[in-house]
Amino acid sequence: MESDKNNGMSRTAPMLEAVNLTKRYDDGVLALDDLNLSVFPGRAYAMLGANGAGKTTTINLFLNFIDPTEGEARVAGVASHRDPLLIREKVSYVSENVMLYMNFSAVQNLDFFARLSGRSKGFRRDECRDVLRRVGLEDDCHDRKLKTFSKGMRQKCGIAIAVIKGAPAILLDEPTSGLDPKAAFEFMNLLDSLRAEGRAILMSTHDIFRAREIADDIGIVKEGRLVMQRSREELEGEDLEKIYLDYMSGLS
Amino acid sequence: MIGIVVKKELFETVGSKKFHISFAVCSVLILLAFYAGIRNHQNNVERYEASKADNLRKLEGLKEWHEVENYRIFLPPRPLESLVGGVSNDIGRTIVIQRGNELEAEGSRFGDDPVFAVFGFLDLEFIFQIVLTLFAILFAYDSVNGEKERGTLRLTFSNPIPKSSYILGKWTGSFVAVCLPLMIPLLTGCLMPPVLGVGLSGGEWLRLGLVILSGLLLFGAFLAMSIMVSVFTKRSSSSFLVLLVIWIFVILIIPRTAVVLAARAVETPSVDELAAKKSSFARQLMMEDREKVDGYRGSGGSDMEAMMREFQEFMNGIQEERRKKTDEYNARLNEERRNKQIVQEKTAFGLARISPSATFTLAAASLARTSLDQKERFLGEAGRYQETYGRFMLDKTGIASGLRVIRISDGDREEGEAKASIDPGEIPVFDFHEVSTAECVKGSIPDMGLLLIFNLAFFALAYFRFLRYDVR
Ligand SMILES: Nc1ncnc2c1ncn2[C@@H]1O[C@H](COP(=O)(O)OP(=O)(O)O)[C@@H](O)[C@H]1O
Ligand SMILES: [Mg+2]
User: Fold this and answer.
1) Is A108 a member of any domain?
2) A233, B277, B294, B356: most buried, per Cβ within 10 A?
3) Which of B148, B149, B158 is the best mutation test for A, with the most CBs of A within 10 A?
4) Residue A179 sits in which domain range?
5) Cα–Cα distance between B406 and A122 in angstroms, integer?
6) What are the tens digits of pLDDT across the range B177-219?
7) What is the Cα–Cα distance from B197 to B219, expressed in whole angstroms?
8) pTM tops 0.95, yes or no
9) Element (H or E) spanning A172, and its range?
């Protein structure tokens, strides 16, 4: 069943695709060197890498917050630097520290970002509450100001914003860093359900166990280069932590 | 898209504690300015009426017109002056009128109540210039870089919103968010004059409305400038510092420096220098006349009365001539000084207009008729009145000059014999013709236009910089 779905999906076009993606910053740092990866609808891709490996740079390139030096970051087949506004309709983004308007309530934040995402027509405010419940925020905190929220709750709010946008692709930059195990577990369940809806998920993380749990494909990035990429099936029975540490210490 | 940002900006601003506190402070100050202004005006009216009555009372009981001295005219107080002080508190509001004397306004409000001169009045102009500009900076200094620091800018731009829409929305939103609430105390303040019994004419309402509009334009200029600085600087703490420095320059340093520079550029003789020149000229004429008097030979004869009359006529002639010469000389000196002063003022004001706050001051003062022109106008009107007064006195006394003349009693009239007192009511009334409303408004339009240009220029800079802004 699972493999049927994957086979079906892999024949469709990738939702997110990095093609020879290279980024050299103005100060000469080569942050990303010829990266190639694809994320298909209904699949999750985890980028593993140390601090400074180039994970955030990759996500910034997909969002066209920066222009690539070479290559392309494509969303639904469109290079992000060719039509930034179009691709921003198609991706949701959850940052490492979800920072929202602290003086707004959860509902107000959600409402604002939902409208920004282009959903102003036919959008009902009740929908915000439904989505907040779905990500695990109970009714009693819907109207509380964000500044009273814990980091885990803010992160849930962030994913609620990604959910309500309804975009086919989701980019997450270290979404579980700093979350306690329970919050991280709930977060992963949520991602799982989004993937089941057919969204393409690209997530950067240093959390090997979470990555293994959720990802259909795992890539290890080191100093801007993709040094390993394997599917869940290929990793069956392997010790991912050992593989990762070997790559990091340069043994492989 | 713009609407969404505007709405968010509005809610975010109005919902913040910072806003509640500063809005309360501003409201209290605005209302206080209106209240104090109106009370101040009422006091001024009282004082004005009292001085006028006193002026006439001093003449009561005088038997002869030539005994009239120190007749004064007064600059009538107007409600808008108390709201936009301008120079109205510094200029003399009283002029002593005599035939042929040189007119000098005295009795300024600051002279009468020196304690106010120390800090000045809390008027609407002060509120707009000091309080509201700070208010604008406080609200917009981190408008863009603050969102970047807080991380909301990234999330915002992960959505399909064009940068131009965002910055336009920011600008409109912050303007609406702080201006609309301010309209509450401002409009309440406008209700105060009629409620407290000070009626404003249609022209005064229009001018007051335009003063408020210029104030809002100044506010807008500072808001746009703050947004601009927040786009150009990385961190909100540095944009706040930069803005404070700019504020000090714009509000305090530029206008003062402009005056100093203009004084350097255009030299104007001081009042004292002028007075010295005038008195030395007068002394010289007096010497010449004394020689003429020494050389006086009457036509002779034994009729004492006729001889006196002849001498009187001779003296009148000399004095009249001297007066004419002095007047001409003084007028020429004054004119020269005045012309230089005008050039100096123009230079100073022109330079000061780099500062939006100075531009606002000039616009507001011209609308409230409290600009420097008002002083000139009062003197001019007084000069015209002096002629009327002179003709009237000549008619009454037959003496051409203000100098006291020894009058020889007819002898016919006994000491105790009652002579009717003069009627001070016969003295022509001084009627101050003010600059027309249309002219006031016309005079302020260039400055209001300049304020608008400041708004647009600051925003344009912010706009084009933001199009290339790194939202990460
Ligand atoms: N704006 C920038 N200018 C110059 N170098 C940068 C910039 N942002 C990141 N880098 C460098 O690029 C490399 C990759 O950074 P990043 O993508 O943030 O790593 P990660 O998210 O994997 O920790 C690092 O060496 C970092 O120092
Ligand atoms: Mg990172």
Assistant:
1) yes
2) B356
3) B158
4) 16-249
5) 100
6) 988 889 999 999 999 999 998 889 999 999 999 999 999 999 9
7) 30
8) no
9) strand A169-173
